Amino acid sequence: MLYKVVNGAVTLGNKTILEEINFEVKNQEHIAIVGRNGCGKTTLLRAINGEVEFEKGLGEEEFTVTELGIENVGYIKQDAIMDENITMLDEILKAYDNILEVEKRLEKLESDLASKYDEKLLNKYQDLYLHYQNIGGYSYKKEYETAIRMFGFSDSDKDKRIGEFSYGQRTKISFLRLILSKPDLLLLDEPTNHLDLKAIEWLEKYLTSYPKMLVVVSHDRMFLDRVCNITYEIEYGSLVKYVGNYSFYEKSKKINYKRDLENFERQQKEIERLRKIADRFRYKPNKASMALSKLKQIERMVKVDRPKSVDNRTFSKNFSPRVDSYRDVLKVKGLKVGYDGVLGEISFNLERGERLGIIGENGTGKSTFLKTIMGDIPRLGGKFVFGNRVEIGYFDQNVESLNSDDTVLEVMRKEFPLVETEELRNILGTFGFSGDMVFLNVGSLSGGQKVRLLLCKIIRHQPNVLILDEPTNHLDIIGRETIEELLLQYKETVIFVSHDRYFVKKIATNLLAFENGRIDYYKGDYDYYLTNRIIVENVLNTDNKRSESCGQKTKYVSDFKQRSKLERRLKKLEVEIQKLEEEISKVHLEMTREEVYTNIDKIKVLEQKVNELENKLDEKMREWEDLMIGLENF
């Protein structure tokens, strides 16, 4: 299978969105498409799906679009039309039309054979039975049952009519049907939006082993790392290909830019040197030929273009609190949260400088907890108390709370009536609202712009405790990275809810997990949480088995055996890590040889090899760290 565009472009109205598209996906490749909001990622997916036409691009190559072996393309649409009178299960089963058709044929043959034995019928039945096995006839029920459960639906939901579900739930059902139908080319636009952690983890595992072509647009960096093996970046209207996942792309882009800039500057210095020689001797009769040769040498050079600067325009990352809080920031003891009923009970102490990440499934009480400690809804039991000199900056995920009729400047002026307009415009400028943008109505802003405006208001107050409910929603990757840098530089206390695991892993020092009907506090980072979550789940599963066994004997694996297993793996990892470090050192040594570092092609090959080895080393080191954390808990 192959889908390929050479020298394509896309124009919407009078505006060229993408001007030079060279894109390819084949066989079982999983492609990530990344870039700034508004760069054309969704437009590219729509063009591949045939909703928008490709045109000839600006390149010199002949414009072509090639499709080979692709029978169907799957693309989720926000306004997907479904029959509202059929059940959810009937809609999901449309993904398995081919399997269900074979099932009917098998049942018919079984009925015929039961009434009359026939050798030809038996052979036909056996051939069809093997075909049924090969197309997943004995696994599809487990597949869709698991998917339905992981996407937050219950068994009773399967018999509900589509018309009984909310718009968001219908979108989920449509999405499930799409991915379970396994089209030859699957196009996904922000597939993790509105999914909780459990659903995202299931989707990752499902797509990692997806047997056909996959193209994904997403701001979820951990999702892209785990699902995709090739990355295309859209920047300045063109696509650049990186053979690797998101982390590889991120490292490679920085390395490539640095190398290209150094090559450009090196050539410019050489050109300047040659020109100075030519200028110095061009009017001396006995040196004129030498001066001319230097000018010809410049003409013969293959000019290196200055690399385009990385498009990382974003908002300010620096701010400091008005005053410091005391060490004890928040004490929570037996706090019960909920609306009509108790969703959970919470206890922990948070100190100055700690960053508490709150994670879990949708509807489990994460935002309710924030609203409770902010005083927006009453507690149902227990208590909480903030420490002395705590000044809170609260970010509500509901960005639509802003008055759509106000201009950007009016929003700030109402919040800070005593502050001069010039100062307000200055701070708005640091958040990307420069020039006449301050006069835009809030209603015309994108989701990402509204997030920046809310953050601007918060930071102008200079709080010493930030409480953030899904701050990365609506932001592109550059915006998310900016918030990460802002929070890492911020030395005070942060409490935040997020489904972005990459963000959580980078920021959180402690975790509060709303999972499995429980609320567990982990005094450690995301890796610590992942290691200990397994232990908690094992304990819960053991307790459940005990309660269900009614006296039956339970088989246990001793801590000693488990520890021995971890230690053996740890020793093996340490040997593998040492070998990788030695390989990297050998390649670095090879790059110091004159015949190598003077050859750009050889250097590129060796840099690629170093990147691959370092990626493997990073994976081994992460596993080693997780094992060390696990051993500490025995």
Descriptors for this entry?
634 residues, single chain, globular, 20 helices, 6-stranded mixed sheet, alpha/beta, 19% strand
Radius of gyration: 30 Å
Q: Based on DSSP secondary structure assignment, what is the total number of beta strands?
A: 19
Strands of the widest sheet, in order across it, are: 6-7-8-3-9-10
- Span from first to last CA? 50 Å
Q: What count of helical segments does DSSP give?
A: 20
Largest sheet: 6 strands, mixed
Helix content: 40-55%
Q: What fraction strand?
A: 15-25%
Shape: globular
Low-pLDDT stretches: 547-559
Overall mean pLDDT: 84
Structural class: alpha/beta
Structure description:
This protein is of the alpha/beta class. 47% of the residues lie in helices and 19% in strands. It contains 20 helices and 19 strands. It has a 6-stranded mixed beta sheet. A 6-stranded mixed beta sheet has the order 15-16-17-13-18-19, sandwiched between helices. Strands 1, 2, 4 and 5 form a 4-stranded antiparallel beta sheet that branches. Helix 17 crosses helix 20 and helix 18 packs antiparallel against helix 20. The longest helix has 36 residues. It is globular. The two termini are 50 Å apart. About 2% of the residues have low confidence.
